[in-house]
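Ticket #4471: structure output looks truncated?

Reporter: J.K.
Steps to reproduce: submitted the chain below (387 residues) through the standard prediction queue, then opened the result file.
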Amino acid sequence: MHKEATSSRLGSVYAANLFVSLHFYLVIYVTSAFLGLSFSAAGVGLLYLVGSLASLALFAGFVGWLKWLGNVRLVALLVVFEAAALLGLAFAHVIDEIVFCFLVYAAVSPVIYLNLDIFVERFVRDERVTGSVRGMFLTMINVAQVLCPLLAAYLLHETQYGRVYIASVVFLLIALAIILLRLSSFDDVPYERRSLGKTFLYVLGLPDLRNVFAAQFILRFFYGWMVIYTPLYLLSLGFSWDQLGVIFTIMLLPFLLLELPLGKIADSRWGEKEMMVIGFVIMAGAILWMPFLSARFFILWTSILFASRVGASCVDIATESYFFKHVDSSKADTIMLFRVARPATYVVAALVASLSLIFLSLQWSFLILAAIMLLGLYFSFVITDTR
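Returned output as attached by the reporter:
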Protein backbone atom coordinates (compact mmCIF):
# COMPACT_ATOMS: atom_id res chain seq x y z
CA MET A 1 0.00 0.00 0.00
CA HIS A 2 1.56 3.33 -1.09
CA LYS A 3 2.34 5.94 1.54
CA GLU A 4 0.06 8.51 -0.13
CA ALA A 5 -2.85 6.08 -0.26
CA THR A 6 -2.28 5.10 3.35
CA SER A 7 -2.21 8.73 4.42
CA SER A 8 -5.41 9.44 2.48
CA ARG A 9 -7.19 6.47 4.06
CA LEU A 10 -6.05 7.47 7.52
CA GLY A 11 -7.48 10.92 6.82
CA SER A 12 -10.80 9.31 5.93
CA VAL A 13 -10.74 7.32 9.18
CA TYR A 14 -10.01 10.52 11.12
CA ALA A 15 -12.98 12.22 9.43
CA ALA A 16 -15.30 9.29 10.12
CA ASN A 17 -14.07 9.24 13.70
CA LEU A 18 -14.92 12.92 14.09
CA PHE A 19 -18.55 12.38 13.06
CA VAL A 20 -18.91 9.15 15.05
CA SER A 21 -17.65 11.10 18.06
CA LEU A 22 -20.02 14.01 17.40
CA HIS A 23 -22.86 11.47 17.43
CA PHE A 24 -21.53 9.83 20.60
CA TYR A 25 -20.70 12.85 22.74
CA LEU A 26 -23.73 14.87 21.74
CA VAL A 27 -25.92 12.52 23.76
CA ILE A 28 -23.56 11.08 26.36
CA TYR A 29 -23.90 13.87 28.91
CA VAL A 30 -27.64 14.43 28.46
CA THR A 31 -28.84 10.83 28.43
CA SER A 32 -28.56 10.32 32.19
CA ALA A 33 -30.61 13.49 32.71
CA PHE A 34 -33.13 12.33 30.09
CA LEU A 35 -33.50 9.00 31.89
CA GLY A 36 -33.68 10.91 35.17
CA LEU A 37 -37.04 12.30 34.06
CA SER A 38 -38.47 8.80 34.51
CA PHE A 39 -36.10 7.05 36.93
CA SER A 40 -34.26 7.69 40.19
CA ALA A 41 -30.45 8.11 40.27
CA ALA A 42 -30.12 4.47 41.32
CA GLY A 43 -32.50 3.43 38.52
CA VAL A 44 -30.44 5.34 35.95
CA GLY A 45 -27.32 3.58 37.19
CA LEU A 46 -29.07 0.22 36.86
CA LEU A 47 -30.03 0.96 33.25
CA TYR A 48 -26.43 1.82 32.42
CA LEU A 49 -25.34 -1.41 34.08
CA VAL A 50 -27.72 -3.52 31.98
CA GLY A 51 -26.83 -1.62 28.80
CA SER A 52 -23.15 -2.18 29.43
CA LEU A 53 -23.71 -5.89 29.98
CA ALA A 54 -25.46 -6.01 26.61
CA SER A 55 -22.48 -4.22 25.06
CA LEU A 56 -20.12 -6.77 26.59
CA ALA A 57 -22.13 -9.50 24.87
CA LEU A 58 -21.66 -7.72 21.53
CA PHE A 59 -17.94 -7.35 22.13
CA ALA A 60 -17.67 -11.07 22.92
CA GLY A 61 -18.96 -11.94 19.44
CA PHE A 62 -17.18 -9.11 17.62
CA VAL A 63 -14.27 -11.03 16.08
CA GLY A 64 -16.55 -13.76 14.76
CA TRP A 65 -18.78 -11.23 13.02
CA LEU A 66 -15.70 -9.35 11.80
CA LYS A 67 -14.34 -12.48 10.11
CA TRP A 68 -17.77 -13.21 8.59
CA LEU A 69 -18.82 -9.76 7.38
CA GLY A 70 -15.59 -7.78 7.16
CA ASN A 71 -15.03 -4.45 8.88
CA VAL A 72 -16.94 -2.23 6.45
CA ARG A 73 -20.14 -4.31 6.35
CA LEU A 74 -20.05 -4.86 10.10
CA VAL A 75 -19.75 -1.17 10.93
CA ALA A 76 -22.60 -0.40 8.50
CA LEU A 77 -24.83 -2.93 10.24
CA LEU A 78 -24.00 -1.51 13.67
CA VAL A 79 -24.71 2.04 12.49
CA VAL A 80 -28.19 1.01 11.29
CA PHE A 81 -29.05 -0.43 14.71
CA GLU A 82 -27.56 2.57 16.51
CA ALA A 83 -29.44 5.09 14.35
CA ALA A 84 -32.73 3.24 14.88
CA ALA A 85 -32.21 3.25 18.65
CA LEU A 86 -31.43 6.97 18.75
CA LEU A 87 -34.50 7.79 16.65
CA GLY A 88 -36.49 5.66 19.08
CA LEU A 89 -35.23 7.76 22.00
CA ALA A 90 -36.12 10.92 20.08
CA PHE A 91 -39.75 9.94 19.69
CA ALA A 92 -40.48 7.39 22.43
CA HIS A 93 -43.00 8.36 25.11
CA VAL A 94 -43.65 5.02 26.76
CA ILE A 95 -41.16 3.89 29.41
CA ASP A 96 -40.80 0.41 27.88
CA GLU A 97 -39.83 1.95 24.53
CA ILE A 98 -37.35 4.30 26.21
CA VAL A 99 -35.72 1.43 28.09
CA PHE A 100 -35.47 -0.78 24.99
CA CYS A 101 -34.00 1.95 22.78
CA PHE A 102 -31.56 3.03 25.46
CA LEU A 103 -30.31 -0.52 25.91
CA VAL A 104 -29.71 -0.91 22.16
CA TYR A 105 -27.91 2.46 22.07
CA ALA A 106 -25.78 1.61 25.12
CA ALA A 107 -24.89 -1.80 23.68
CA VAL A 108 -23.93 -0.72 20.16
CA SER A 109 -22.28 2.70 20.48
CA PRO A 110 -18.97 1.57 22.10
CA VAL A 111 -18.52 -1.23 19.57
CA ILE A 112 -18.38 1.17 16.60
CA TYR A 113 -15.12 2.59 17.95
CA LEU A 114 -13.61 -0.88 17.74
CA ASN A 115 -14.32 -0.90 14.00
CA LEU A 116 -12.46 2.40 13.71
CA ASP A 117 -9.52 0.95 15.64
CA ILE A 118 -9.30 -1.88 13.09
CA PHE A 119 -9.15 0.66 10.26
CA VAL A 120 -6.39 2.67 11.96
CA GLU A 121 -4.19 -0.27 12.85
CA ARG A 122 -4.44 -1.64 9.28
CA PHE A 123 -3.02 1.62 7.91
CA VAL A 124 -0.20 2.13 10.45
CA ARG A 125 3.00 0.53 9.16
CA ASP A 126 5.59 2.16 11.45
CA GLU A 127 5.13 1.77 15.22
CA ARG A 128 7.48 4.73 15.75
CA VAL A 129 4.60 7.03 14.76
CA THR A 130 1.93 5.23 16.80
CA GLY A 131 1.78 7.98 19.41
CA SER A 132 1.30 10.65 16.75
CA VAL A 133 -1.34 8.67 14.86
CA ARG A 134 -3.22 7.85 18.06
CA GLY A 135 -2.87 11.45 19.16
CA MET A 136 -4.55 12.63 15.96
CA PHE A 137 -7.21 9.93 16.25
CA LEU A 138 -7.98 11.02 19.82
CA THR A 139 -7.92 14.68 18.79
CA MET A 140 -10.85 14.05 16.44
CA ILE A 141 -12.70 12.57 19.41
CA ASN A 142 -11.69 15.53 21.53
CA VAL A 143 -12.91 18.10 19.02
CA ALA A 144 -16.31 16.45 19.29
CA GLN A 145 -16.12 16.34 23.09
CA VAL A 146 -15.47 20.07 23.25
CA LEU A 147 -18.13 21.08 20.72
CA CYS A 148 -20.92 18.78 21.87
CA PRO A 149 -21.80 20.20 25.31
CA LEU A 150 -22.45 23.64 23.81
CA LEU A 151 -24.37 22.13 20.90
CA ALA A 152 -26.39 19.95 23.26
CA ALA A 153 -27.18 22.93 25.49
CA TYR A 154 -28.38 24.85 22.42
CA LEU A 155 -30.55 21.96 21.20
CA LEU A 156 -31.90 21.33 24.70
CA HIS A 157 -33.93 24.53 24.69
CA GLU A 158 -36.83 23.83 27.06
CA THR A 159 -35.49 20.26 27.52
CA GLN A 160 -36.28 19.16 23.96
CA TYR A 161 -34.23 16.00 24.15
CA GLY A 162 -35.60 14.68 20.85
CA ARG A 163 -33.68 17.32 18.90
CA VAL A 164 -30.40 16.13 20.43
CA TYR A 165 -30.99 12.52 19.43
CA ILE A 166 -32.00 13.45 15.88
CA ALA A 167 -28.84 15.53 15.45
CA SER A 168 -26.82 12.58 16.74
CA VAL A 169 -28.31 10.35 14.03
CA VAL A 170 -27.37 12.88 11.33
CA PHE A 171 -23.73 12.88 12.46
CA LEU A 172 -23.67 9.09 12.56
CA LEU A 173 -25.00 8.78 9.01
CA ILE A 174 -22.37 11.23 7.74
CA ALA A 175 -19.71 9.01 9.28
CA LEU A 176 -21.19 5.98 7.56
CA ALA A 177 -21.22 7.80 4.22
CA ILE A 178 -17.49 8.59 4.58
CA ILE A 179 -16.72 4.94 5.35
CA LEU A 180 -18.77 3.60 2.45
CA LEU A 181 -17.39 6.12 -0.05
CA ARG A 182 -13.73 6.16 1.01
CA LEU A 183 -13.06 2.80 2.68
CA SER A 184 -15.32 0.36 0.82
CA SER A 185 -12.29 -1.43 -0.66
CA PHE A 186 -10.76 -2.01 2.79
CA ASP A 187 -8.64 -5.17 2.76
CA ASP A 188 -9.39 -7.25 5.86
CA VAL A 189 -6.50 -9.27 7.28
CA PRO A 190 -6.80 -12.81 8.70
CA TYR A 191 -8.03 -11.88 12.16
CA GLU A 192 -6.96 -13.94 15.13
CA ARG A 193 -10.01 -15.44 16.79
CA ARG A 194 -9.83 -16.60 20.37
CA SER A 195 -12.57 -16.80 22.94
CA LEU A 196 -12.90 -13.91 25.36
CA GLY A 197 -11.55 -16.15 28.11
CA LYS A 198 -8.49 -17.24 26.12
CA THR A 199 -7.76 -13.64 25.08
CA PHE A 200 -8.02 -12.60 28.71
CA LEU A 201 -5.55 -15.32 29.73
CA TYR A 202 -3.22 -14.25 26.89
CA VAL A 203 -3.18 -10.67 28.20
CA LEU A 204 -2.70 -11.85 31.80
CA GLY A 205 0.41 -13.72 30.67
CA LEU A 206 2.04 -10.52 29.36
CA PRO A 207 2.80 -8.22 32.33
CA ASP A 208 3.07 -4.97 30.37
CA LEU A 209 -0.18 -5.54 28.48
CA ARG A 210 -1.85 -6.62 31.71
CA ASN A 211 -0.79 -3.44 33.50
CA VAL A 212 -1.78 -1.07 30.71
CA PHE A 213 -5.16 -2.86 30.53
CA ALA A 214 -5.60 -2.20 34.25
CA ALA A 215 -4.67 1.47 33.88
CA GLN A 216 -7.10 1.85 30.99
CA PHE A 217 -9.82 0.12 33.01
CA ILE A 218 -9.40 2.58 35.88
CA LEU A 219 -9.48 5.52 33.46
CA ARG A 220 -12.69 4.20 31.89
CA PHE A 221 -14.13 3.70 35.38
CA PHE A 222 -13.56 7.43 35.91
CA TYR A 223 -15.35 8.26 32.66
CA GLY A 224 -18.26 5.95 33.44
CA TRP A 225 -18.83 7.36 36.91
CA MET A 226 -18.46 11.00 35.86
CA VAL A 227 -20.68 10.72 32.78
CA ILE A 228 -23.55 9.21 34.77
CA TYR A 229 -23.34 11.09 38.05
CA THR A 230 -21.68 14.48 37.46
CA PRO A 231 -24.63 15.93 35.48
CA LEU A 232 -27.07 14.61 38.08
CA TYR A 233 -25.03 16.12 40.94
CA LEU A 234 -24.55 19.51 39.29
CA LEU A 235 -28.21 19.74 38.31
CA SER A 236 -29.11 19.00 41.95
CA LEU A 237 -26.95 21.98 43.00
CA GLY A 238 -29.05 24.27 40.80
CA PHE A 239 -26.98 24.56 37.62
CA SER A 240 -28.92 24.95 34.38
CA TRP A 241 -28.14 23.11 31.15
CA ASP A 242 -26.93 26.40 29.65
CA GLN A 243 -24.36 26.64 32.43
CA LEU A 244 -23.44 22.96 32.19
CA GLY A 245 -22.86 23.31 28.46
CA VAL A 246 -20.21 25.97 29.12
CA ILE A 247 -18.71 24.07 32.08
CA PHE A 248 -18.42 20.80 30.17
CA THR A 249 -16.94 22.51 27.12
CA ILE A 250 -14.19 24.15 29.18
CA MET A 251 -13.75 20.92 31.16
CA LEU A 252 -12.98 18.97 27.99
CA LEU A 253 -10.47 21.41 26.48
CA PRO A 254 -7.43 19.52 27.87
CA PHE A 255 -8.27 16.55 25.64
CA LEU A 256 -8.25 18.81 22.59
CA LEU A 257 -5.16 20.79 23.54
CA LEU A 258 -2.92 18.15 25.09
CA GLU A 259 -3.36 14.72 23.53
CA LEU A 260 -1.80 15.40 20.11
CA PRO A 261 1.38 17.01 21.52
CA LEU A 262 1.56 14.39 24.28
CA GLY A 263 1.32 11.63 21.64
CA LYS A 264 4.28 13.15 19.78
CA ILE A 265 6.22 13.44 23.04
CA ALA A 266 5.54 9.75 23.74
CA ASP A 267 7.17 8.93 20.39
CA SER A 268 10.21 11.17 20.82
CA ARG A 269 11.00 12.23 24.41
CA TRP A 270 9.13 10.84 27.40
CA GLY A 271 7.78 7.36 27.84
CA GLU A 272 4.13 6.66 28.61
CA LYS A 273 4.90 5.67 32.21
CA GLU A 274 5.55 9.22 33.41
CA MET A 275 2.36 10.47 31.76
CA MET A 276 0.25 7.84 33.49
CA VAL A 277 1.67 8.60 36.93
CA ILE A 278 1.18 12.36 36.56
CA GLY A 279 -2.30 11.88 35.17
CA PHE A 280 -3.61 9.67 37.97
CA VAL A 281 -2.22 12.02 40.65
CA ILE A 282 -3.98 15.02 39.07
CA MET A 283 -7.26 13.10 38.64
CA ALA A 284 -7.37 11.90 42.24
CA GLY A 285 -6.50 15.35 43.57
CA ALA A 286 -9.21 17.07 41.55
CA ILE A 287 -11.93 14.57 42.49
CA LEU A 288 -11.10 14.92 46.20
CA TRP A 289 -12.32 18.52 46.05
CA MET A 290 -15.75 17.66 44.64
CA PRO A 291 -17.60 16.51 47.81
CA PHE A 292 -16.47 19.65 49.64
CA LEU A 293 -17.88 21.99 47.02
CA SER A 294 -21.62 21.61 47.56
CA ALA A 295 -22.73 24.99 46.23
CA ARG A 296 -23.23 26.49 42.79
CA PHE A 297 -19.81 28.12 42.25
CA PHE A 298 -19.35 28.29 38.51
CA ILE A 299 -15.63 29.15 38.38
CA LEU A 300 -14.60 26.65 41.07
CA TRP A 301 -16.56 23.79 39.54
CA THR A 302 -15.20 24.59 36.09
CA SER A 303 -11.63 24.67 37.45
CA ILE A 304 -11.95 21.36 39.30
CA LEU A 305 -13.49 19.54 36.36
CA PHE A 306 -10.92 21.08 34.00
CA ALA A 307 -8.08 19.81 36.22
CA SER A 308 -9.58 16.32 36.34
CA ARG A 309 -9.50 16.19 32.54
CA VAL A 310 -5.91 17.40 32.40
CA GLY A 311 -5.05 14.27 34.34
CA ALA A 312 -7.38 12.09 32.29
CA SER A 313 -5.89 13.33 28.99
CA CYS A 314 -2.40 12.32 30.19
CA VAL A 315 -3.57 8.81 31.08
CA ASP A 316 -5.69 8.52 27.94
CA ILE A 317 -2.96 9.16 25.37
CA ALA A 318 -0.36 7.25 27.43
CA THR A 319 -2.44 4.06 27.61
CA GLU A 320 -3.52 4.31 23.96
CA SER A 321 0.03 4.86 22.69
CA TYR A 322 1.52 2.14 24.89
CA PHE A 323 -1.08 -0.46 23.97
CA PHE A 324 -1.06 0.10 20.21
CA LYS A 325 2.74 -0.03 20.14
CA HIS A 326 2.34 -3.65 21.24
CA VAL A 327 -0.39 -4.85 18.81
CA ASP A 328 -1.35 -4.70 15.13
CA SER A 329 -4.65 -5.09 13.25
CA SER A 330 -4.41 -8.90 13.20
CA LYS A 331 -4.77 -8.87 17.00
CA ALA A 332 -8.46 -7.98 16.70
CA ASP A 333 -9.31 -10.10 19.72
CA THR A 334 -6.77 -8.27 21.90
CA ILE A 335 -7.93 -4.87 20.63
CA MET A 336 -11.51 -5.99 21.31
CA LEU A 337 -10.62 -6.84 24.90
CA PHE A 338 -8.93 -3.45 25.30
CA ARG A 339 -12.10 -1.73 24.13
CA VAL A 340 -14.25 -3.92 26.38
CA ALA A 341 -12.98 -1.63 29.14
CA ARG A 342 -15.61 0.95 28.17
CA PRO A 343 -18.81 -1.11 28.69
CA ALA A 344 -17.18 -3.24 31.40
CA THR A 345 -16.30 -0.22 33.48
CA TYR A 346 -19.79 1.20 33.02
CA VAL A 347 -21.02 -2.03 34.60
CA VAL A 348 -18.55 -1.78 37.45
CA ALA A 349 -18.91 2.00 37.88
CA ALA A 350 -22.71 1.81 37.94
CA LEU A 351 -22.60 -1.11 40.37
CA VAL A 352 -20.03 0.46 42.72
CA ALA A 353 -21.77 3.84 42.62
CA SER A 354 -25.20 2.29 43.23
CA LEU A 355 -23.83 0.37 46.22
CA SER A 356 -22.10 3.48 47.55
CA LEU A 357 -25.36 5.43 47.30
CA ILE A 358 -26.85 3.01 49.83
CA PHE A 359 -24.37 4.25 52.42
CA LEU A 360 -23.38 7.69 51.15
CA SER A 361 -25.06 10.62 49.50
CA LEU A 362 -24.27 11.33 45.86
CA GLN A 363 -22.06 14.19 47.06
CA TRP A 364 -19.77 12.07 49.26
CA SER A 365 -19.66 9.08 46.95
CA PHE A 366 -17.04 10.91 44.87
CA LEU A 367 -14.50 10.14 47.62
CA ILE A 368 -14.70 6.50 46.56
CA LEU A 369 -13.95 7.50 42.97
CA ALA A 370 -10.87 9.45 44.11
CA ALA A 371 -9.57 6.44 46.04
CA ILE A 372 -10.00 4.20 43.00
CA MET A 373 -8.00 6.63 40.86
CA LEU A 374 -5.06 6.23 43.25
CA LEU A 375 -4.97 2.53 42.36
CA GLY A 376 -3.90 3.59 38.89
CA LEU A 377 -0.54 4.71 40.29
CA TYR A 378 0.47 1.12 41.05
CA PHE A 379 -0.16 -0.11 37.50
CA SER A 380 1.58 2.96 36.08
CA PHE A 381 4.73 2.36 38.11
CA VAL A 382 5.12 -1.34 37.22
CA ILE A 383 4.91 -1.15 33.41
CA THR A 384 8.13 -1.29 31.38
CA ASP A 385 8.60 2.15 29.90
CA THR A 386 9.03 2.50 26.13
CA ARG A 387 11.80 5.10 26.51
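Triage note (M.O.): checked the attachment and the full C-alpha coordinate line is present. Residues 164 and 263 are 32 Å apart (CA to CA).
Status: closed, working as intended.
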